[in-house]
Structures are given as structure tokens and as C-alpha cells.
Specification:
heterodimer, A: mainly alpha, MetI-like fold, 13 helices, 0% strand, B: alpha+beta, Rossmann fold, 2 domains, five-stranded antiparallel β-sheet, 8 helices, 34% strand, binds adenosine-5'-triphosphate, binds magnesium ion
Chain lengths: 301, 351
């Protein structure tokens, strides 16, 4: 069990499997399971009950209703917000993985003995808080920010560029930077695991560097890529801080409207329904993604 | 010009000179073995021939074409890796087909070639198996098929049988040998197992410390080693210090201390000698008889091994026992060790 747990971790997406008749694995997991039940399952169940409650009463008073779900599905505005959130985090995921892959590749294959140093160096920006990094981008992209004031002072523009901040673009830039390190690690691990003699065997059988990369390195690092993509896609879809700080009205995402329902509007049932709907959408998409990646890996022979 | 020729090739790793000015000539169609203890530079030499390492000096030529500067993926060699390096994401068929995909074969032609090769290595019908569904011996065959299907000019094998158990190893030795003879492809095998080299190869180069000590047929290597290291490395042997007493035409007499005056044919010496030279005389255990000889001794230990027995015979005044292998009846009491002068191996003495 210990072994499959570790490989499950390093593979990024594999899930720990219990061998036949090996209940010791579950026993080992039980503290984790207990914590998960308490902190994840219980609030989720509560959220579910809220989502079925009539807008004005205590939980489930007067029976369940699907009115909130009807509203979530029916209102054009919510659907648009869902699409935008998925759109933004799809772009963020693509950009993050595209940026992270070469970095992970470099560390795994060309960093020599300084691998460890490189890995630490790559995570240094992430020693500061997430909030600080988001603010940093606000300062870089803002009207009086680094880019605008630099361009003005050298006379290239006379008024600040407005498209830099408070739109989906700024959200994408900020999120991509914020999640880069999380994408590097799983990709690095899967590249590092590739037996170097496989690469030599491919070369020996006539592959130049590019063909070898496409036929061996890339397929064998797919678990890391899939893991990285999920690791970025799932949380960014529900991100709340970045769109709040650098998104503006055009850059708002689904989490913003959920927070508004709980907070300013005080409509907990609708907020709960929105939250669960977004979980379901992300869950289904993640599964579709994994299935598609598997099929692609099979077809790529 | 031989088929593979290695000329004064040197390879350094930092301060370590792993391969020291090696010369090697491998004839076309030969089964050639590089034999030597661990760390002697065999793999390094093989990897330079494959193109995975660049020599610091010297020339490697295959079929008359110098390979300096030719990248590994364009060399007419293929390799069977010690770890087999089976691609884990591909099944057996796709592993074997890997190197053919770009050769512009039609789908049917490719399938036919791969199937034929799978049959050659006795893996018919296994094409759909995944790499993790194979036994060690089957993985070995896949690695072999994958390299051979490319029809290389030279097949390089780095300890290909090292990971197999003894039974399977012996079976694969026979199969590899038969395969090489039927395909006629030049095999260059690296091994530290002298039995493996002796049983499979036509020619063996014995390496030690980055140098080649001797290149010869298995029989010559066993019967005519050219130095103490080779004699010691190939099989069991007994060494006796001696000095040349007299050279008279084809006959040389040596003073071998406890063994007394020993006649040795002049042709046993593959090197120049003069009277008074210190030399090393050596005898294989199976060439020593336990009776009818001239040297008195007694049996200190005996082990019965079925068709033959091994004995340690003690001679008064000599600390190491003399190792004797005999298929005759077990001796009772003292023995008189003897040998045929033609079986004496004479080696130069090096301090
Ligand atoms: N990449 C490398 N970097 C530094 N030293 C190396 C490298 N490869 C080999 N060596 C050194 O070169 C020498 C020869 O190594 P090589 O692998 O050729 O030995 P070998 O004869 O194949 O041994 P074995 O039977 O154990 O495989 C050894 O001393 C080894 O430590
Ligand atoms: Mg080796």
C-alpha cells in the first residue's frame, strides 16, 4: 500500500489502490479519512441541504425545493459566468502547462547535479503569499503601474493603456504566474521517472531528438501533464481572490457571484446551488479531460 | 580491412581513463565477445561504438566508414540494453516495430517483418502483450527482436543475459549463438561472465583496466593465454615460479623449485627468453594427473561433482594447494602429481 500511495502521489493522477484483501491500507488511511469526512464531506452535505432550502426560512423548513437549481440553469447571466470561468481557467491551464513543461524538462534533463537547487529556485516566488503576488501584478499592470509609467516616461504612449488591468487578460496573467510552480512539480516528477535507457533505445532505433521526444518523452510524461493540468484547472475555475483584485467587472468569475450571494445578497440557498453546480461542472470536465488524454495517449503510438 | 575496426580509441571521464588506446578488429559475421571484470571499460567501449559516447581520441570505423561525428541514431548498429529498455507504453508488437515506422514500409510489409521477427525469437502471438506482462526471458527476446528487425550491420549486446536465472541464461546462450549463425549478423557481446564468452563467441577480447590484454579464439585463450591476468581470469589455473635453465633448440628446461627440473617446448613461450630469465609456468587443473608423476603430494580436500572431482593437493614447501580436476577413481593415500610437458603454459613474469 505504501508503495502505491507514493507512486500515486508522484504520478500526479493515479489514485491509491488497495490490493485485494489488504485492509491495512484503509486502516493507515483512516485518520486522513476522518479528517476528510469532518472537513469536506460534512460541509458539502450542509451545502447540499442549503441548496434545497426555500430562500427565506431555516434549513429545509417546509420541504425541499429545486427552485435555486432552476434559477442557476435558467438565468443567462449565470451561464455566461460559468462559461467565462471555464474559458479563463482553460486558457490559464494551457498557458501554465506550456510554460511549466520546458522548465520541468530543463530541470529533469539538463540541470545536472544542481537539480535540487533549481527546484528550490523555481519555488522561491511562491514563498510569498498568494495575495501579495496578486497585488504585485496589480502594481505591474495598473494605470499608474510599472508598465504604464515606464511606457509614458519614455514617451511611447501619452495615456495609460487600459487593456492591461481589470479584464480577463489580467486574470489569466496573474493566475498563470500564481500556479506555475504547482504545474512544474508533477511534470518534473514524471520526466525524472523516465528511464534514461529508454531514450537511448529510441535513439539507437533511429529517432532524432524531436521524434524521440514525441514518441517517448512526451507520452511517458503524460501522467505529469494531466496531473498538472488538473491541479491548475480545478482550483482556478473556482478562484475568487484574483478576479476580485485584478478582474474588474469584465473579469469576474463564478466564485465572485457565489461569494456575493453568501455575503452581500444573503441568499445562501442560491449561493449553495451555484457552488454545487460549479463543482459538478468542473468534476465532469476533469473526468472528460482525463478520458480524452488517455485516449490520445493510446492513439499516439 | 575488418568489418568493425577500433583504432587507438581513448575515453576519459574527468581524471579516469576508462578506455586506454584500444585497438580492435572484428571480422564480418563474427560473434565477438568483450570480456573483463567489472569497471574495466567494456560498456564504455560498446557505447562509443553505438555513438552514445564520443571517444576523446582514435577512430571507430564500421564497414570502412569512420563513425566520428556520426550521431547514434544514424549509425548502422543496434543495441540490446542490459536493462532491456522495453518501452513501457507500447505493446510487444509496437516495441519491435518502433525502429521500422520511419523506413517507409507499407502497413502489411511492416506487419510481416515484425511477425517474422517475433517468430524468430519465439514470441509468436505475443504482439498484443504489454511490457509489464512479460517474463524476464520474454523481455530479453523483445529487446533482441527490436534491435534485430532493423537488420543492423553490428548488433551490440551489453550483458544481455545478466538479469536471467542460470537455467534460462544457458538456454539463451545456445539460442543466441544459433540465431547469430543463422542470421549472419555480426554480434559484439559485452560480458564479465567467462563461461558465457567461451561458450558463445568465435573471438574474445579480454579487457582489464581499460586495456585489451589478448584477443583470441576461446580455445586459444584457454590453452595459450599471453599473460597472468588472462590465464587467471579464464578458468582455474595453478601458477609456479620458475627460471629458464637451458634453451636447446625446440626444448627448454626450467628450474621450477619444488616441481624440480621441468621440460617445456620452446613454442609454449610466446615471448623472447634467455637463460636465467624468471618466468611463470602454469597448469590447468584437468591437465594434472594424480598418479605416475614426479611430484609427491597429499590430498588436503576433495569435492565430488558428478562426472569429475576437484582436489586440493598439498606439496611440501608450497603454501597454496595445487588444484586438480580428475575424472578417475578417488586416490588413496599420497599422490604423485604429473603432467604432459606439452600442456605447460609459459607466461612472462611481471613484478
Ligand atoms: N558517465 C561516466 N562518468 C564517469 N565515469 C564513468 C562513466 N561511465 C563509466 N565511468 C567509469 O569508467 C570505468 C569503466 O566503466 P564501464 O561502465 O565501461 O565498465 P564495465 O566494464 O562495463 O563494467 P561492468 O561490468 O560493471 O558493467 C569505470 O571506472 C566507471 O566508473
Ligand atoms: Mg557495463
Amino acid at each position: 500500500m505504501g508503495k502505491s500511495l507514493i507512486s500515486g502521489f508522484s504520478g500526479g493522477v493515479q489514485v491509491a489502490k488497495a490490493e485485494d484483501g489488504n485492509d491495512a491500507g484503509y486502516l493507515l488511511l483512516s485518520p486522513t479519512l476522518a479528517v476528510m469526512a469532518l472537513t469536506l464531506a460534512a460541509p458539502l452535505a450542509l451545502l447540499f441541504l442549503y441548496s434545497l432550502t426555500r430562500t427565506t426560512g431555516p434549513v429545509l423548513e417546509g420541504g425541499a425545493t429545486l427552485a435555486q437549481y432552476a434559477e442557476v440553469l435558467g438565468r443567462e447571466g449565470y451561464r455566461a459566468l460559468f462559461w467565462r470561468s471555464l474559458d479563463i481557467s482553460a486558457v490559464v491551464t494551457l498557458a501554465t502547462v506550456a510554460l511549466a513543461y520546458p522548465m520541468a524538462y530543463f530541470v529533469a534533463f539538463h540541470a545536472g547535479r544542481r537539480k535540487f537547487l533549481w527546484l528550490i529556485a523555481l519555488t522561491i516566488p511562491f514563498w510569498t503569499s498568494y495575495l501579495l503576488r496578486v497585488f504585485a501584478w496589480k502594481i505591474i499592470l495598473g494605470y499608474g503601474g510599472v508598465i504604464n509609467s515606464a511606457l509614458i516616461s519614455i514617451g511611447l504612449i501619452s495615456a495609460p493603456l487600459e487593456f492591461l488591468l481589470y479584464n480577463p487578460f489580467s486574470v489569466v496573467v496573474t493566475l498563470t504566474h500564481a500556479w506555475a510552480a504547482f504545474a512544474i512539480l508533477p511534470i518534473y516528477v514524471s520526466l525524472e521517472k523516465i528511464d534514461r535507457s529508454l531514450l537511448e533505445a529510441a535513439t539507437d532505433l533511429g529517432d532524432g531528438p524531436l521524434r524521440r521526444f514525441l514518441r517517448i518523452t512526451l507520452p511517458l510524461s503524460m501522467p505529469g501533464v494531466i496531473g498538472a493540468a488538473l491541479l491548475v484547472f480545478v482550483p482556478t475555475t473556482g478562484d475568487y481572490v484574483t478576479p476580485t483584485l485584478v478582474g474588474g467587472p469584465q473579469g469576474a468569475m463564478i466564485a465572485n457571484i457565489i461569494s456575493v450571494q453568501f455575503d452581500r445578497v444573503g441568499n445562501w440557498p442560491l449561493g449553495a446551488a451555484l457552488a454545487l453546480a460549479s463543482m459538478a461542472v468542473v468534476g465532469v470536465l476533469a473526468m472528460l479531460f482525463v478520458a480524452a488524454a488517455r485516449a490520445a495517449a493510446k492513439a499516439a503510438r | 580491412m575488418s568489418f568493425l575496426s577500433v583504432t587507438r580509441v581513448i575515453k576519459r571521464f574527468g581524471d579516469v581513463e576508462a578506455v586506454k588506446a584500444v585497438d580492435l578488429e572484428v571480422p564480418r559475421g563474427a560473434f565477438f565477445a568483450l570480456l573483463g571484470p567489472s569497471g574495466c571499460g567494456k560498456t564504455t567501449l560498446l557505447r562509443m561504438i553505438a555513438g552514445f559516447e564520443q571517444p576523446d581520441d582514435g577512430v571507430i570505423a564500421i564497414d570502412g566508414v569512420a563513425m566520428n561525428g556520426v550521431p547514434a541514431h544514424q549509425r548502422p548498429t543496434n543495441m540490446v540494453f542490459q536493462s532491456y529498455a522495453i518501452f513501457p507504453h507500447l505493446n510487444v508488437f509496437d516495441n519491435v516495430a518502433y525502429g521500422l515506422r520511419r523506413d517507409g514500409l507499407g502497413k502489411d510489409a511492416l506487419r510481416a517483418r515484425v511477425e517474422a521477427m517475433l517468430a524468430t525469437v519465439r514470441l509468436e502471438g505475443m504482439g498484443a502483450r504489454r511490457a509489464d506482462q512479460l517474463s524476464g526471458g520474454q523481455r530479453q527476446r523483445v529487446a533482441l527482436a527490436r534491435a534485430l528487425v532493423k537488420q543492423p550491420k553490428i548488433l551490440l549486446l551489453d550483458e544481455p543475459l545478466g538479469a536471467l536465472d542460470k537455467r534460462l541464461r544457458e538456454q539463451m546462450q545456445v539460442e543466441l549463438r544459433a540465431l547469430q549463425k543463422s542470421l549472419g549478423i555480426t554480434f559484439l557481446l559485452v560480458t564479465h561472465d567467462q563461461e558465457e564468452a567461451l561458450s558463445m563467441a568465435d573471438h574474445i577480447a579480454v579487457m582489464n583496466g581499460g586495456r585489451i590484454l589478448q584477443i583470441a579464439s576461446p580455445r586459444d585463450l584457454y590453452e595459450r593465454p599471453n599473460c597472468r591476468e588472462v590465464a587467471d581470469f579464464i578458468g582455474e589455473i595453478n601458477f609456479f615460479h620458475a627460471s629458464v635453465k637451458e634453451i636447446a633448440g625446440d626444448n627448454v628446461t626450467c628450474n621450477a623449485g619444488l616441481l624440480g627440473i621441468v621440460p617445456v617446448p620452446r613454442r609454449a613461450f610466446g615471448f623472447a627468453i634467455a637463460a636465467g630469465d624468471h618466468v611463470l609456468l602454469a597448469l590447468r587443473p584437468e591437465r594434472i594427473t594424480l598418479s605416475g608423476g614426479t611430484v609427491a603430494g597429499e590430498i588436503a580436500a576433495a569435492s565430488f561433482l558428478g562426472e569429475r572431482s576437484h582436489y586440493h593437493a598439498r606439496i611440501a614447501g608450497r603454501s597454496e594447494p595445487v588444484f586438480v580436476a580428475s575424472s578417475g577413481p578417488a586416490p588413496q593415500g599420497p599422490v604423485m602429481l604429473g603432467w604432459n610437458p606439452a600442456d605447460v603454459i609459459a607466461l612472462p613474469f611481471v613484478e
